[in-house]
Design goal:
This protein is 30% helix and 19% strand. By secondary structure, the chain is an alpha/beta fold. The chain has two domains: 152 residues, 3-Layer(aba) Sandwich (Udp-n-acetylmuramoylalanyl-d-glutamate--2,6- Diaminopimelate Ligase, Chain: A, domain 1), CATH 3.40.1390; 126 residues, NIF3 (NGG1p interacting factor 3)-like (Udp-n-acetylmuramoylalanyl-d-glutamate--2,6- Diaminopimelate Ligase, Chain: A, domain 1, 3-Layer(aba) Sandwich), CATH 3.40.1390.30. The longest helix is centred in the middle third of the chain and has 12 residues. It is globular, with a radius of gyration of 21 Å. The N terminus is likely disordered.
């Protein structure tokens, strides 16, 4: 697996390895979708969500897979340049189908432009959104990155409690005393972006709830169990204000910041489905926005 920005320059990464090369059978787009649905079942997704193949020919042979958080026209173009005819994303290209499809933003909104470009360029759009969010692999990812000990799912979607939203985690004994300021600094180091923090920086933490993307009802659940802090992608202003007043500190990473690590899970899943590692590429979408510093111009 190589970064997509290297795909046009690192020809050695695609050079045949002769008789020792690993033999892999050709996969169709539909077969890839089926294999991924085995890992992230459609029934695990929210009813309103879009899961699996949204745009493209399921009978087409997969030439390569580009992985990204979001479907954008730039991502589609980058996939095409790299020889990938599948763009595998976390977020779907649309929830409600676009009313207009056009290459021009003046005529169609972004989803309509993206669908038009994908179809015209022969790039299939496949996504796994909430079905990925609740998966066991996703549940363990951010706690591991933040060196917190996972304990249980806070809002399970099934009786076994193995899948769901929000991960209740414990601060490791070796890290104590562990303050909100320490957690915020760790988040900045791990994710490369300074989070927005609600609460007293000196507050000592023992229990931390993690929720990638939108916090939703995880806020109420975290409050109900008396958790010390919630780390999430984003939270509504008044929900955060009320939670902070009730004693729940919040570290708000940014929606995309909290979910960009999921691209690595999707890439690995594509490889496990049968795509050759050197045909799987991860697009860097970590610079979609910037925060101005304090330097005066």
């Amino acid at each position: 697996m190589i970064p997509i920005e290297d795909a046009n320059t690192n020809e050695l990464a695609k050079a045949p390895a002769g008789d020792i090369a690993t033999t892999r059978k050709a996969l169709t787009v539909g077969a890839l979708e089926s294999a991924l649905l085995g890992q992230f079942p459609r029934e695990d997704a929210e009813e309103w969500d879009r899961t699996g193949l949204l745009v493209g020919d399921p009978a087409a042979l997969v030439t390569g897979v580009a992985v990204a958080l979001d479907v954008t026209r730039d991502a589609i173009a980058a996939a095409k340049r790299a020889g990938a005819n599948v763009l595998l994303t976390h977020h779907p290209a649309f929830i409600e189908p676009p009313a207009v499809f056009s290459p021009s933003y003046a005529i169609a909104p972004a989803p309509g432009v993206n669908v038009y470009e994908a179809a015209s360029q022969g790039v299939a759009l496949v996504n796994f959104h909430t079905a990925l969010d609740v998966s066991v692999a996703a549940m363990r990812l951010l706690p591991s990155m933040l060196s917190l000990d996972f304990q249980r799912i806070l809002v399970p979607i099934e009786p076994t409690g193995q899948k769901g939203y929000g991960q209740l985690c414990a601060v490791r004994e070796a890290d104590k005393p562990f303050k909100l300021a320490h957690l915020a600094a760790r988040c900045t180091s791990v994710f490369g972006r300074a989070p927005r923090v609600w609460g007293d920086a000196a507050k000592q933490l023992s229990s931390v709830v993690i929720a990638n993307g939108s916090a939703g009802n995880v806020v109420d659940e975290a409050l109900s169990i008396g958790a010390d802090c919630l780390v999430c992608g984003e939270v509504k202003y008044h929900a955060a204000l009320d939670a902070a007043q009730a004693g729940l500190a919040i570290v708000e990473l940014g929606h995309d910041v909290s979910e960009l690590p999921l691209c690595a899970l999707l890439a690995q899943s594509a490889i496990e489905a049968g795509i050759a590692p050197d045909a799987v590429f991860i697009l860097d979408q970590g610079e979609n926005w910037a925060m101005p510093d304090s330097t005066r111009i």
